[in-house]
């Protein structure tokens, strides 16, 4: 991104985010928390923030970015992000032993949020209908939901049969868990949760990945709501799905074992989660 384009983007975002936030003296209706990998997503996140800023409803929102994964001696330049109205938490490394780094990266933003209603997205996702989705989330909170989530699709998928098979397995397994087993299939790219309920579950050791946020909140007495409407779906990036049948077999085996280990709801200690003993998966 060239400097002139970056200046125009931040100027436009600044005006739109000021409108989105509303009166800064009042808490927003919800806080949107987005982890940002400084090595890969500092520019990507501007796309999803721009989509959030297209919101045209009557609710108010703040956008919190948790910028992480950078050398402490070389912090990224973030003045333009802050000047445009994004709230920033910058931490060189957010990861904790025993946790998926995607979950670890959400915690500082959730702790520092101004609202008790939290909506989480990823830095490389897409939100086709931001007004419908954000209003739906706030509506669910107003109706007593503790956690809400919607369908997650994908974009930028390679046109390979092995990738198509992976998507079929992915959506099929999520449907089985959600419909037959009554397990809330939360995905990190897209859910909303009551801040106090989330932090209570986290501090008691029930959360180590976005995968078990839904089951933990439900088991602890929270009300969980889901919508499969395609109008409310977000699109996660498929850029890492490179294809290959052997990779697919390995992936299916990994995900099966991962689900069997993490979906049961119980408090955990770091050594009990062997998948998260290194900073990156």
In short:
This protein is an alpha/beta fold. It is 39% helix and 17% strand. The protein has one domain: Alpha-Beta Complex (Spore Coat Polysaccharide Biosynthesis Protein SpsA, Chain A).
Mean pLDDT metric? 85
First-residue to last-residue Cα separation: 28 Å
CATH third-level topology: Spore Coat Polysaccharide Biosynthesis Protein SpsA, Chain A
Q: How many structural domains in the coordinates?
A: 1
Strand content: 15-25%
- Helical fraction equals 25-40%
Number of helices: 10
Which structural class should the secondary elements be placed in? Answer: alpha/beta
Tell me the name of the CATH homologous superfamily.
Answer: Spore Coat Polysaccharide Biosynthesis Protein SpsA, Chain A
Outline the biggest β-sheet. 7 strands, mixed
Strand segment count: 9
The side-by-side strand order for the widest beta sheet comes to 3-2-1-4-7-5-8
Kindly provide the name of the CATH class: Alpha Beta
**Run of helices and strands:** HEHEHEHHEHEEHEHHEEH
* Global geometry: globular
Would you kindly provide a written description of the structure presented here, covering whatever features stand out?
The chain is of the alpha/beta class and 281 residues long. The protein is globular. It is built from ten helices and nine strands. The chain has one domain (3-268): Spore Coat Polysaccharide Biosynthesis Protein SpsA, Chain A. Residues 1-5 have low confidence and may be disordered. It has helices at residues 3-21, 44-52, 79-83, 101-104, 107-111, 130-142, 161-180, 195-203, 213-219, 245-262; strands at residues 30-37, 61-68, 87-91, 117-121, 147-150, 152-155, 190-194, 224-227, 234-237.
């Amino acid at each position: 991104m060239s400097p002139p384009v970056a200046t125009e983007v931040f100027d436009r975002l600044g005006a739109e985010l000021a409108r989105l936030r509303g009166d800064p003296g009042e808490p927003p209706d919800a806080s949107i928390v987005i982890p940002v990998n400084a090595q890969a997503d500092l520019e990507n996140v501007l796309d999803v923030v721009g989509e959030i800023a297209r919101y045209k409803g009557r609710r108010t929102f703040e956008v919190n970015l948790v910028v992480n994964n950078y050398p402490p001696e070389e912090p990224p330049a973030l003045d333009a992000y802050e000047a445009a109205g994004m709230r920033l938490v910058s931490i060189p490394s957010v990861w904790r032993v025993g946790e998926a780094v995607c979950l670890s990266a959400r915690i500082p933003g959730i702790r520092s949020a101004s609202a008790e209603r939290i909506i989480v997205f990823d830095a490389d996702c897409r939100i086709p209908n931001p007004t419908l989705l954000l209003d739906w989330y706030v509506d669910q909170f107003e109706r007593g939901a503790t956690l809400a989530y919607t369908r997650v699709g994908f974009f930028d998928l390679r046109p390979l049969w092995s990738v198509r098979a992976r998507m079929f397995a992915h959506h099929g397994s999520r449907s089985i868990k959600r419909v037959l087993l009554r397990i809330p299939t939360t995905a990190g790219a897209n859910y909303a949760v009551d801040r106090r309920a989330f932090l209570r579950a986290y501090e008691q050791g029930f959360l180590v990945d976005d995968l078990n946020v839904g089951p933990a909140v439900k088991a602890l007495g929270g009300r969980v709501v889901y919508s499969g409407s395609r109008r409310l779906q977000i699109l996660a990036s498929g850029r890492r799905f490179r294809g290959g049948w052997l990779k697919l077999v390995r992936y299916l085996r990994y995900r099966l074992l991962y689900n069997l280990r993490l979906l049961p709801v119980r408090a955990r200690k770091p050594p009990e989660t062997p998948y998260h003993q290194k900073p990156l998966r």
